[in-house]
Write a structure and sequence with these properties.
Blueprint: H1 3-13, H2 18-39, H3 42-59, H4 69-88, H5 95-102, H6 115-134, H7 137-148, H8 153-160, H9 164-188
Helix pairs in contact: 1-2, 2-3, 2-4, 3-4, 4-8, 6-9, 7-9, 8-9
Length: 189
């Protein structure tokens, strides 16, 4: 954990609650974007992120500093996402609907890139998102944390609440399944 995070936490615990606002600003975008990948919905990601920050604020005194603040916050968010999913038990949404709900369409912002490259890149990203959405939630979650968030195995294990060996196994199996799903998608193209 950064000393800056710890300082903000200490300030918040001493009554300067605006310090928590700085933590929110620091981590809200990262948490939201990760949750969009995990939940498959921009709306759910916003709600879960908001719930997570509220719970983190109320539970801040229980934060022990043994892990990074973001790891602790993300664990709260994952628990909130699981609770929300249990409560809602909605039918699965197509990847096209999820993309529309998320409002996120990959854009290649480099002006020197040709339009055809941008189209190909977008198609590849859609295929990866489609394949990722078809993975079991356990595999998808650890892959998002490892590959998109760049977290270490130890941090992932703490967030998802399972041993490091299980995390490694899920990542390996998730990569294998993702590779197979992408192979099938590319073959269909």
């Amino acid at each position: 954990m950064t000393t800056d995070d710890q300082q903000l936490i200490d300030e918040c615990l001493s009554g300067q609650t605006e310090a928590f606002g700085q933590l929110v600003v620091r981590y809200q975008d990262r948490l939201y974007h990760t949750l969009v990948s995990v939940t498959g919905s921009a709306e759910d990601a916003r709600d879960v992120a908001q719930d997570a920050f509220v719970q983190a604020f109320h539970k801040l005194s229980t934060f022990q500093g043994k892990s990074a603040f973001y790891s602790w916050l993300f664990r709260i968010a994952m628990n909130a996402a699981i609770s929300r999913k249990r409560k809602n038990r909605r039918p699965t949404v197509s990847i096209d609907a999820a993309r529309e709900n998320a409002g996120v369409e990959p854009i290649d912002g480099h002006p020197e890139t040709s339009p055809s490259h941008a189209i190909e890149l977008t198609e590849q990203q859609v295929m990866v998102r489609t394949a990722l959405a078809e993975l079991p939630e356990d595999y998808r979650t650890v892959l998002v944390l490892k590959e998109m968030e760049g977290l270490k195995y130890e941090e992932i294990a703490e967030i998802v609440g399972c041993p490091i060996g299980t995390v490694r196994s899920r990542i390996h199996r998730g990569r294998t399944e993702l590779k197979e799903k992408l192979r099938v998608l590319l073959k269909d193209e």
